[in-house]
């Protein structure tokens, strides 16, 4: 390659790379008017909410609106920053007290420009402003806090979460005081009597289709070779996959060889050359299921 | 319920074994040289009488009909109930034959085995063979079973007379793992009248789909030629699970409506069942249907490179591409500098 070619190739490569980088950072836009120009607007972190116990910093702040205000005449309104950025509407939370419980409902948060709401967490505190103890409730817009003490005021917030569990929008705080003898509203319920008539809960009007959450395929459970002696640490002779439990997996493994020929010696628990109900009865005697979570 | 009881009284010399009463050997007093063989015989007989009931009737199956008297054209349910008499059972197998007054086999119209003491079935009861229902399964962990439901058979008698049920089967106990113990053969007769009794309560109908569907994808070199396979487990408290179906497709489908879908390539599977496609190349769904047609669908997982995941990884790939580009640029610059 000649020197002239080399000198030509470098700028071309830089130009291509610049275009590539420009696409990746195309969000930054200069703002102009006949009187002024705002160059290279940036986003900056902003204090979202504080208390004596914690500070919550949002990842970006909306600085394009309200940075300064304009009246009339020669005073210009300055609107700096990004006009378009990922945004999630804040859920509007309401709470209805019950007996030792509080029914919570909120409007669905709507994410735009790339942010998707994948679930909600309900924060609960005995102190206004927090700190809150958050509990994930999934992609729902109602929840009930139970096990509360009647007569005690509780403070709640609800936070929308993205697919990674990050809090991307948090409601304003609401409070409720559970009272003995009060029946909180139940979705779809009817009838019954009582002195307390809860206010009607108007469901949010859905303007967008709720996001679809598609869980990934769980990892494949690799069953170690069924050998004699077994590989791994087996709970009992019936723990065929040596995972410490005798459960439906072991049952399925044995069922694979049910009434078959050429069965592995270790699957044949009675060592009589076949897998039948007698072998399964031995497995049942050793049954030891893993605790549910 | 049947019980065998041995009555031991002083009036029964055979059982009590006292020589000072009138003997079956004669009116004379027992001579001393005869006392030992007679007592030995008495002891052996006593032992046999006590031994056999303990082993033969350590568990039994009984029938409970609802309504107790059937009527022509009216569905009747016959519940098969197990009692292990305090012993811990781990497995049960059985066969029930049902014949009418004319001796012909009677067809079972439906079966419910939800909520059974059998926790996992090896051979599920079916209505395929007229007049005969066979089953086997295990009681996970082993349990003392006290008059608990095994399964319920439903019939619609076509003529008056008697339906006769005969049960035979085996049970396994923890005291002798893997050794079957024969259950006593039990017969049960159900009277069929012309007209139904008044105030007959309706029989239970299952309208609740299966729940708690769990699926595991596993792999073992000795099973299915090393291909990944799926294990599905679900619960149905009423009629019981009828079948599992598997769907492996290339695009995501929302769960709503899949319960009754007939267009997608669902395939009925055994448990376990090998996957048709390599792992992480298809969206996998499982449909579980109970014996009365209620279905529930569970989504097992998305492929590794689904559009959703691709979107998540997009930014990471972009950053990687930029870094590679910068590295390439630097390398080029150094190469050009060295060359010049």
Notable traits:
heterodimer, A: 293 residues, Immunoglobulin-like, Type 1 dockerin domain, 3-stranded antiparallel β-sheet, 3 helices, 14% helix, B: 340 residues, alpha+beta, 4 domains, 4-stranded antiparallel β-sheet, 18 strands, membrane (chain B)
Report on this model:
Chain A: Residues 87-186 form the Fibronectin type-III domain. Chain A: Residues 1-28 form the signal peptide. Chain A: Keywords: Signal. The complex is a heterodimer of chains A (293) and B (340). Chain A has helices spanning 3-24, 248-256, 277-285, and strands at residues 31-32, 37-38, 46-50, 55-58, 87-88, 93-97, 101-106, 111-112, 119-125, 133-138, 142-146, 154-161, 167-170, 174-176, 221-222. With 293 residues, chain A is an alpha+beta fold. Among the domains of chain A are: 87-176, Immunoglobulins (Immunoglobulin-like), CATH 2.60.40; 221-293, Dockerin domain (Type 1 dockerin domain, Orthogonal Bundle), CATH 1.10.1330.10. In chain A, strands 9, 10, 12, 13 and 14 form a 5-stranded antiparallel β-sheet that branches. In chain A, strands 6-7-11 form a 3-stranded antiparallel β-sheet, with no helix packed on it. The longest helix of chain A is centred in the first third of the chain and has 22 residues, at 3-24. Chain A is flat, with a radius of gyration of 31 Å. Chain A starts with a helix and ends in an 8-residue tail after the last helix. The model of chain A is unreliable at 22-29, 57-70 and 184-207 (pLDDT under 50). The model of chain B is unreliable at 1-32, 49-55 and 306-312 (pLDDT under 50). Chain B is 18% helix and 37% strand. Chain B has helices spanning 13-16, 32-56, 307-339, and strands spanning 60-66, 70-71, 76-83, 88-99, 110-112, 120-123, 132-144, 148-155, 161-173, 180-182, 186-193, 211-219, 229-235, 241-249, 267-269, 273-274, 283-290, 295-301. Chain B folds into 4 domains: 13-56, no CATH class; 60-193, Sandwich (Immunoglobulin-like); 211-301, Immunoglobulin-like (Sandwich), CATH 2.60.40; 308-340. Chain B is α+β, with helices and mostly antiparallel strands and 340 residues long. In chain B, strands 2, 4, 6, 7, 9, 10 and 11 form a 7-stranded mixed β-sheet that branches. In chain B, strands 1-3-8-5 form a 4-stranded antiparallel β-sheet, with no helix packed on it. Classes of the chains: A alpha+beta (293), B alpha+beta (340). The interface between A and B is large, with 49 and 62 residues.
